[in-house]
User: Fold this.
Amino acid sequence: MNDEILSKTKKKQQMHALQALGVELVELSRERLAQIELPERLMIEIREAQRITSHEGRRRQMQFIGKLMRETEEELIAAARERLAAWKGLSKAETTRMHTMERWRDRLVADDAPLTEFLQLHSGRRRADAAQPDPQRAQGARRGQTAARLPQIFRVVRETLEGRT
Assistant:
């Protein structure tokens, strides 16, 4: 790590931070884990921790992963943290997008007026190969306004926002 002298408290904080990063790495899928550059020994131990189901065994394995991470180059650890932060950001963006679609669906179920507004706002959002959103299809999805029709309304909203019909 650093050549500077660290207090015992600071060392423990760094150790716990590395162990928490190790927990996040263990929770990743194999595909995502493969996208992070870490020493082979650490990758093997992370995969092993993913297989362990015993609480105490997993706890001990996580401590061992923390120890290996303390021995790993800081640049690799920083890159892993950045990659995880980027993935979390993508997840937050996806959640925000889903919430937007759900709000539009709820507005469309509650009243006829938002349909025109929705189509005016989003008819310009389309891929080069996609056609314009179909207002009759959206109105058809609205007609029943029962719980069974909510997925259909949501589908129309999602397809319109994604530029598909």
